[in-house]
Amino acid sequence: MKLSQLTSTLLISCIINMLLAQSLQAETTVKSPVFKDYGPVYKINDLNVPLAKDFKYKVLFDISKGPESEDEVNRNIESVARFINMHVMHGVKIENIDIAVILHGRATRDGLNNQSYEERYLTKNPTLDLINQLHGKGVKFYQCGQSAYYQKIKTKDLNKNVGMALSAMTMLTELQAAGYQLIPWY
Fold first, then answer.
1. Would you state the pLDDT for residue 53?
2. What's the pLDDT tens digit per position in 12-55?
3. What is the secondary structure of the chain as a DSSP string?
4. pLDDT of residue 30
5. CA-CA distances (angstroms) from residue 76 to 9, 10, 80, 185?
6. Which pLDDT score, from 0 to 100, does residue 138 have?
7. Which CATH topology does 41-184 take?
8. Of 159, 151, 91, nearest to 130 (Cα)?
9. What is the pLDDT, as a whole number, of residue 9?
10. What pLDDT shows up at residue 180?
11. From residue 166, how far is each of 15, 38, 174, 175, 185 by CA, in Å?
12. What is the mean pLDDT of residues 132-139?
C-alpha cells in the first residue's frame, strides 16, 4: 500500500470514528422535558441503586464560582438544571424537588438584571434566562449581601427573581436548619 493510500485510509477511518463518537454522544446525552436548553444529562438504564420512592429532595446549592468570561453561562448554576432534569427523567415528580441557590463571590454577577450587567460588562447577562427558567420551576435564589455590597451592587441591580440576603453564611445557616441538604459548588 502506498503512503498516500495509507494516509487516505487513516483519514477516512478517523472521520468515521469521530462521526460514530458524536452519534453515540448524541444518543446518550439527553435533555429533559423540564429544561430543553440547559442541563444535559444521561439516562441511566442500569441503575442498581434505586431512587427512594416518594423522596422529597430539599437541596441547597452554594455557588461562589463562575466563568472567567462575562459572556458565558455559569455552568455551576446550570448544574441546578441538571439536578432537576436527571431526577425528573428518572421518575421524581417536580413537586418533590425543592431547591435554593445562594450566589456569592464571582457568582454574584450572575444575579444581576440585564441593565446592571450591561453597565458593568457591556453585554447582556448570559445566565439570566437560566435563572428565570429555574425560578419558574420553583428554585429560590438568594444573593449574598456582603458580596454584593463589596462589588457595589444594590438590590435594585438584581434580577427580580433573586433576593438580597444579609450574607451567604446567614442563608447557609438558616436553610440548612430548615432541612436543606448542602451541595457546596464552590
1. 85
2. 544 444 444 444 444 456 767 699 999 999 988 888 998 988 89
3. --HHHHHHHHHHHHHHHHHHHHHHHHHHEE--SS-SSS--EE--TT-SSPPPTT--EEEEEEE----SSTTS--HHHHHHHHHHHHHHHTT--GGGEEEEEEE-GGGGGGGB-HHHHHHHHSS--TTHHHHHHHHHTT-EEEEEHHHHHHTT--GGGB-TTEEEES-HHHHHHHHHHTTPEEEE--
4. 73
5. 42, 39, 7, 7
6. 98
7. Hypothetical Protein Ychn; Chain: A, (3.40.1260)
8. 159
9. 46
10. 98
11. 55, 30, 11, 13, 20
12. 98
Amino acid at 49: V
- Domain ranges in the chain? 1-29, 41-184
Q: Which cell is 87 given?
A: 431526577
Q: 136-165 burial, b if ≥16 CB within 10 A, otherwise e?
A: eeebbbbbbbbbbeeeebeeebbbebbebb
Higher pLDDT, 92 or 7: 92
